[in-house]
């Protein structure tokens, strides 16, 4: 077969090089020609071409509407070699007041809705430019911008538009290119122009300087931005994240609360949101919602969420924020193209580019006007010469055979240029009247003044800046409106501790996860053996499971049964009355559905000299430097790796000087060993064996950190029996041993529920499963040996039991205020009316129990 390529040159090409070159060409085409906006005019090519095509068609804001199909046809036929649907979609978005902060297209017909409805076909809709678009295109015919060839080299199109408006930040932009993306939020025009005016006079303005004018993004749909940290990051670095929440207000309907949504986060589909809320309510994933309906109309958005009778609007809202687009995150990336190069800019850089573009446009416009004025003055100078020598000019023209000969003679006789001689030939006889001669002279003098002014502008930076400021002020006057998106400070970003008194609080948490803080003065000290008073109002299936005393400025570390650690400032926990239910802890920290808080530890700092020790149900202990927990994410961190069927029971802080760990089990075992037997480990580790159980049914219930052997431990059982024992009675052993007996147990004591270190400057507070709390002076509790049972600390009712104990500061003043006295009247009366016989019975029962314990020993 004859070689078809015998007479042709064959070039060997590496396929990798070919693919690489082709892909790079494609990438640059997408980056520069399609997906990213220009930093100068803030427009992508398709938007720029739509506006320029409408300018070509003379479709101004004062012109009649024209069919969208006509506009799209011109755009794809002349400038944009892509599909008509992509062009029409861009045009539709430019007309949507819920997508653009300042719409660039004035649409007539169906252009879509916040419910996600599509626009009508382009043959049905009509459009024209808005007044803002005219400001973007103003002076384009004065050689203010460069023009380039269109895709088939038959026409010219502008490379950028000579905008008077900072469009990039005004309307924002979103686009995904190859290997990069941009996401610029909309802003308020008045704030942007105020910042521009400031930058004109302050060349080196920083992001902090500009933020006194620009508060943050201003979305067309309103909403509320929570926190300023993401805004600051974006304006300083070009990248940041802001949280946007829907605006709402609460109405009442009988005894029920009604949540009404007034504004939605940017780009949230309303109908899809309502459907999602209804589904969550139906599936019981969000409790408390009885009905959801859409009452929106042309006046605005109104989404009504009716709650059940006992539902709290705040809890329902927090659940909806977590589970629905009622709260969204907008990731800001200030990426744009400048001189055909994509780059991430900060706020001052973007505004400086806009200012630089405006200066270039004004200079080019001034040069254009100057050249035009000089050309006109040149003609007027020739006309003046002709009028001064009109008889001779007429004679020359009459004696000439044709125009060319007449022009040549005029040039030779009066030293005129070709342009001037042509103008004389074109001059009408009406110009020879005296009035017209005066007008000609006046026009000439005006042109001379204009030329002088234009030349002074080109020579003076100050005059150039004044023009910029005048134009910016004019735009601000015409088109500014009020901010729609509110910005609220986040507690995570504000140091408000100086505004909050640092006082002791009792923090309680119920079995079902409701937490609150109550001033410690709300609880009054009672005699040993007292019945206590109700600490919280709970439902039948709930009870207080844990409580402790801390100060409002402390940080709380929440350790869960799954080994996760979260932290929260005490003052962020809602303060409630003594009988208040509290707030669901899942609304304060991001717990998983199957997580349960096992330890809540207050701390004032995260010093690396301290460590955090974890104790598990199966007897594992692990120690980690406290400094590793100083920066916790919102979803917590893994604090310990757990074995299967194991969980964290408690956690304690060790400080310099701490010597021993003591671990207590449910069946009365206790082990004491040196802290140094457990070395510090990282967060994601398992730990080591702390105690070995004698019985398979036994498990760890509590643990303590010991500083001195002279310290005393108060051990309490579930039937309210307790005793004080010095640490040195518990033999020091090696880690992972069985330990010794910590409490003599029998039917009247029940199992061990916990232990605390005795501090006679503090009181003991004990909590029962039905929600009663009693405060006892530790000095009234007798000391007893290690292998004894103890005395009655709390008289528990039948079916009730002690579930938790803790220490609290002594009260300096036992007098009740009026409100507390009223609340406690019944309780105090019950306590004071106990007759002497009952007191004797209680005392005798304690003595008998102690004697029985001593005999068994």
UniProtKB/TrEMBL annotation:
The Topo IIA-type catalytic domain sits at 36-499
The regions listed as transmembrane in this protein's record are none
PROSITE patterns (alphabetical): TOPO_IIA
Source superkingdom = Bacteria
> Which InterPro entries does the UniProt entry name for this protein?
GyrA, GyrA/parC_rep, Gyrase/topoIV_suA_C, Topo_IIA-like_dom_sf, Topo_IIA_A/C_ab, Topo_IIA_A_a_sf, Topo_IIA_dom_A, Type_II_DNA_Topoisomerases
Single Gene Ontology BP annotation? DNA topological change
Q: Name one GO molecular function term.
A: ATP binding
Keyword Transport listed? The answer is no
Q: Which reaction does it catalyse?
A: ATP-dependent breakage, passage and rejoining of double-stranded DNA
Q: What class of enzyme is it?
A: isomerase
Motif GyrA-box in this chain: 526-532
Query: Mind telling me which Pfam families this protein's record contains?
Result: DNA_gyraseA_C, DNA_topoisoIV
Name of the protein: DNA gyrase subunit A
Q: Which organism is it from?
A: Malaciobacter halophilus
- What gene name is listed for this protein? gyrA
């Amino acid at each position: 077969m004859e070689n078809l390529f015998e007479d042709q040159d064959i070039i060997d090409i590496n396929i990798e090089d070919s693919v690489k070159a082709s892909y790079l060409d494609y990438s640059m085409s997408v980056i520069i020609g399609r997906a990213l906006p220009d930093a100068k005019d803030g427009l992508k090519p398709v938007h720029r071409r739509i506006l320029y095509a409408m300018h070509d068609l003379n479709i101004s804001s004062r012109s009649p509407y024209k069919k969208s199909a006509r506009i799209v046809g011109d755009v794809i036929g002349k400038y944009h070699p892509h599909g008509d649907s992509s062009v029409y979609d861009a045009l539709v978005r430019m007309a949507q007041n819920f997508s653009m902060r300042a719409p660039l297209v004035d649409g007539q017909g169906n252009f879509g809705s916040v419910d996600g409805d599509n626009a009508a076909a382009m043959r049905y809709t009509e459009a024209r430019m808005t007044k803002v678009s005219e400001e973007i295109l103003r002076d384009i015919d004065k050689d203010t911008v460069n023009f380039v060839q269109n895709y088939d080299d038959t026409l010219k199109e502008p490379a950028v538009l000579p905008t008077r408006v900072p469009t990039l930040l005004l309307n924002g932009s979103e686009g995904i290119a190859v290997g990069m993306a941009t996401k610029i939020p909309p802003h308020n025009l008045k704030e942007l122009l105020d910042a521009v005016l400031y930058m004109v006079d302050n060349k080196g303005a920083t992001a902090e300087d500009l933020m006194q004018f620009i508060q943050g993004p201003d979305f067309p749909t309103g909403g509320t931005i929570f926190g300023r940290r993401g805004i600051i990051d974006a304006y300083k670095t070009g990248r940041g994240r802001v949280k946007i929440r829907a605006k709402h207000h609460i109405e009442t309907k009988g005894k029920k609360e009604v949540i009404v949504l007034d504004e939605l986060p940017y780009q949230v589909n309303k109908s899809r949101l309502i459907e999602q809320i209804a589904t969550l309510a139906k599936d019981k994933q969000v409790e408390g919602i009885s009905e959801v309906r859409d009452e929106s109309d042309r006046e605005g958005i109104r989404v009504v969420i009716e709650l059940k009778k006992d539902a709290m609007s705040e809890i329902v809202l927090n659940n909806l924020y977590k589970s629905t687009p009622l709260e969204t995150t907008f990731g800001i990336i200030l990426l744009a193209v400048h001189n055909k190069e994509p780059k991430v800019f900060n706020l001052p850089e973007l505004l400086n580019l806009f200012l630089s573009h405006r200066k270039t446009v004004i200079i080019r416009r001034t040069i254009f006007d100057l050249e035009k004025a000089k050309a006109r003055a040149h003609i007027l100078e020739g006309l003046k010469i002709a009028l001064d020598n009109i008889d001779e000019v007429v004679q020359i023209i009459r004696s000439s055979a044709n125009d060319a000969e007449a022009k040549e003679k005029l040039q030779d006789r009066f030293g005129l240029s070709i342009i001037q001689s042509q103008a004389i030939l074109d001059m009408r006889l009406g110009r020879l009247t005296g009035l017209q001669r005066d007008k000609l002279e006046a026009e000439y003098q005006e042109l001379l003044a204009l030329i002088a002014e234009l030349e002074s502008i080109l020579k003076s930076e100050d005059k150039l800046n004044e023009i910029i400021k005048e134009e910016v002020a004019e735009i601000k006057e015409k088109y500014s409106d009020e901010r729609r998106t509110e910005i609220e400070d986040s507690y995570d970003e504000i140091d408000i501790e100086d505004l909050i008194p640092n006082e002791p609080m009792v923090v309680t948490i119920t079995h079902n996860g409701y937490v609150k803080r109550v001033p410690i003065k709300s609880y009054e000290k009672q005699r040993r053996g007292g019945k206590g008073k109700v600490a919280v109002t709970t439902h039948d299936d709930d009870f207080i499971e844990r409580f402790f005393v801390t100060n409002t400025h402390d940080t709380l570390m929440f350790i869960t049964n799954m080994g996760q650690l979260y932290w929260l400032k005490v003052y962020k926990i809602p303060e409630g009355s003594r009988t208040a239910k509290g707030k669901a802890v899942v609304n304060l920290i991001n717990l998983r559905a199957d997580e349960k808080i096992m330890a809540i530890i207050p701390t004032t700092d995260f010093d690396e000299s301290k460590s955090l020790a974890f104790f598990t149900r199966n007897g594992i202990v692990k120690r980690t430097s406290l400094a590793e927990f100083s920066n916790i994410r919102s979803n917590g961190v893994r604090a310990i790796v757990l074995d299967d069927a194991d969980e964290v029971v408690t956690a304690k802080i060790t400080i310099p000087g701490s010597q021993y760990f003591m671990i207590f089990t449910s069946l009365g075992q206790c082990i004491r060993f040196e802290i140094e037997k457990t070395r510090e480990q990282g967060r994601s580790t398992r730990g080591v064996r702390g105690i070995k159980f004698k019985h398979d049914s036994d498990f760890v219930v509590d643990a303590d950190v010991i500083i001195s052997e002279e310290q005393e431990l108060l051990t309490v059982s579930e039937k309210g029996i307790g005793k004080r024992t010095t640490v040195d009675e518990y033999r020091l052993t090696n880690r992972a041993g069985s330990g010794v007996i910590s409490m003599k147990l029998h039917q009247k004591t029940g199992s061990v529920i916990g232990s605390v270190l005795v501090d006679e400057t503090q009181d003991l507070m004990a909590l029962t499963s039905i929600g009663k709390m009693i405060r006892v002076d530790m000095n009234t509790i007798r000391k007893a040996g290690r292998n004894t049972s103890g005395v009655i600390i709390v008289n528990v009712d039948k079916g009730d039991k002690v579930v938790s104990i803790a220490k609290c500061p002594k009260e300096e003043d036992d007098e009740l205020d009026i409100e507390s006295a009223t609340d406690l009247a019944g309780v105090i009366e019950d306590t004071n009316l106990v007759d002497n016989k009952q007191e004797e019975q209680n005392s005798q029962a304690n003595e008998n129990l102690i004697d029985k314990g001593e005999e068994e020993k």
